[in-house]
From TrEMBL:
It holds the Pfam family Ig_3. Keywords: Cell junction, Cell membrane, Disulfide bond, Glycoprotein, Immunoglobulin domain, Membrane, Phosphoprotein, Repeat, Signal, Tight junction, Transmembrane, Transmembrane helix. Seems to play a role in epithelial tight junction formation. Appears early in primordial forms of cell junctions and recruits PARD3. The association of the PARD6-PARD3 complex may prevent the interaction of PARD3 with JAM1, thereby preventing tight junction assembly. Plays a role in regulating monocyte transmigration involved in integrity of epithelial barrier. Ligand for integrin alpha-L/beta-2 involved in memory T-cell and neutrophil transmigration. Involved in platelet activation. GO terms for biological process: cell adhesion; establishment of endothelial intestinal barrier; intestinal absorption; regulation of membrane permeability. This is Junctional adhesion molecule A. It is a single-pass type I membrane protein. PROSITE patterns: IG_LIKE. Belongs to the immunoglobulin superfamily. It comes from Mustela putorius furo. The gene is F11R.
Length: 297
C-alpha cells in the first residue's frame, strides 16, 4: 500500500506541475466592456488590456456569421480598416461605425516567441432605428380557414420586434386576455412578426397594421390593409360547376353532331392520295428504242 500511495502522490505532483506550466504559459487578457452598443455613425472604443507578456503581439479578428476578417495584425491596423480604425495598447477605436460593423471582435495577444497567449472577445452592436415595415395581408379570408399575416423589417439593429394593430387597437399576445379580441383565435410571434388566425372568425374583419421597434429611434408602422372575413360561397361554387358541365355538354353535342353530318368523313376524303398518271409513248423511229413512258407522281 505504501508503494501505491507514493506512486499516486507522484502522479498527482506531475499532474499539478503540468497545470502550473500551462497556467504560466497563458497571459492575462481582459476588457472593460464585453458588449459595446453605439449609434450608427458614432465613434466606438473596444478595450483590450493584457499583462504577463514580455513582448506582446496584438491581433484583432472580426466575425459576423460566416464572415471573418482581420482588423489588426502584429500591432498594426490592416489596409481595409486603416482609414477608420486606430490601434492602441488599450484597444481599437472606430472613428465612425456602420451597421456592417455589428459583430464579435476577438483581441488575441501573444509573445513573439509564441510561448504565451491569451484572448478576450468584445461584442459590438451598432444601433440602427427600424425602417418602415412591409406586410403581407390577404384582402379576404374564408371563415373557418387558416390565414397568415406577415410583417418584416430588415434595417433595425438590434433586430426589431413586431406588434400588430387591428382598427387602431394593439392586439394582445393572448386574444382571450382582452374582451375586444376574445372571439378571435390567433397566435402572434413578436420575433418573426407572424400573425396566424386559425380558424378565421367573422369578427376578424378589419384594418390591420404592423409596428416595428428595437428600442432605438422611433417605432415605425406599416400601411393599414383591410382583411374581410367571408363565408364560403357554396352557391357560387355550385353555379360555377353547373356552368362548366353545361359548356362541356354543348361541346360533346357539337362533336356528335359533326360526326352525324359526316363532316369528319369529308375531311378524310378531301385528303388526296398520290395517284399514278400514265403517258402514251411518243412515236419513234424504227430500230430506235428508248423509254418514253413514265409515271408521274
Amino acid at each position: 500500500m505504501g508503494t501505491e500511495a507514493r506512486a499516486g502522490r507522484k502522479q498527482l505532483l506531475l499532474f499539478t506541475s503540468v497545470i502550473l506550466c500551462s497556467a504560466l504559459s497563458r497571459g492575462a487578457v481582459y476588457t472593460s466592456d464585453r458588449e459595446v452598443s453605439v449609434a450608427e455613425n458614432k465613434p466606438a472604443k473596444l478595450s483590450c488590456s493584457y499583462s504577463g507578456f514580455s513582448s506582446p503581439r496584438v491581433e484583432w479578428k472580426f466575425a459576423q456569421g460566416d464572415i471573418t476578417s482581420l482588423v489588426c495584425y502584429n500591432n498594426k491596423i490592416t489596409a481595409s480598416y486603416e482609414d477608420r480604425v486606430t490601434f492602441s495598447h488599450s484597444g481599437i477605436t472606430f472613428h465612425s461605425v456602420t451597421r456592417k460593423d455589428t459583430g464579435t471582435y476577438t483581441c488575441m495577444v501573444s509573445d513573439e516567441g509564441g510561448n504565451t497567449y491569451g484572448e478576450v472577445t468584445v461584442k459590438l452592436v451598432v444601433l440602427v432605428p427600424p425602417s418602415k415595415p412591409t406586410v403581407s395581408i390577404p384582402s379576404s379570408a374564408t371563415i373557418g380557414s387558416r390565414a397568415v399575416l406577415t410583417c418584416s423589417e430588415k434595417d433595425g439593429s438590434p433586430p426589431s420586434e413586431f406588434s400588430w394593430y387591428k382598427d387602431g387597437v394593439m392586439m394582445p399576445t393572448d386574444p382571450k386576455s382582452s374582451r375586444a379580441f376574445s372571439n378571435s383565435s390567433y397566435s402572434l410571434d413578436h420575433k418573426t412578426g407572424e400573425l396566424v388566425f386559425n380558424p378565421v372568425s367573422a369578427s376578424d374583419s378589419g384594418e390591420y397594421m404592423c409596428q416595428a421597434q428595437n428600442g432605438h429611434g422611433t417605432p415605425m408602422r406599416s400601411d393599414a390593409v383591410r382583411m374581410e372575413a367571408a363565408e364560403l360561397n357554396v352557391g357560387g361554387i355550385v353555379a360555377a360547376v353547373l356552368v362548366t358541365l353545361i359548356l362541356l355538354g354543348f361541346l360533346i353535342l357539337g362533336i356528335w353532331f359533326a360526326y352525324r353530318r359526316g363532316y369528319f368523313d369529308r375531311t378524310k376524303k378531301g385528303t388526296s392520295s398520290k395517284k399514278a398518271i400514265y403517258s402514251q409513248p411518243s412515236a419513234r423511229s424504227e430500230g430506235e428504242f428508248r423509254q418514253t413512258s413514265s409515271f408521274l407522281v
